[in-house]
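[09:14] KT: can someone run the structure on this one? pasting the chain below
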Amino acid sequence: MLYKIAQNMYNFGVKNTPSVLPYISSLFYLEIMYLSFIVFLIFGRSAAIVFALVFTIIYSLQIISLSRRSNLARKIQIIIFDVHLASGIVFFICAVFLPDLLKGYNAWYFSFKVISVVIEIVLLYFLTLDDVVREYFHNQ
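[09:31] RB: done, structure tokens below
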């Protein structure tokens, strides 16, 4: 019975990963907002606006490419997930050892990071499966 449930979850993931990926990837706009706030604190308002504008345009093109099931966009998204996963784990370790980081806005951001890291691990697994890769090559 447990095998059957695992098999159904696997089939569901393989079938729906290309469709769900652009929607989940749009959550990275929250990351751009957080980073633009940091850029604002360090470099000022103009730099933060330019940073947010440039990264929003670039990432919007990435999401459009993901929705068109471009294999290049899939590979770029794997790299983005990998870098974001590493930064999320570092943020998690810092929050465990420095609990003062979890006050105010950072408590919300920490929750977002934990949820996004879990989702990224699952999506990284499915994005590297041969069945999912074939789906991206099939639509080109």
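[09:33] KT: thanks! The radius of gyration is 17 Å.
[09:34] RB: yep, looked fine to me
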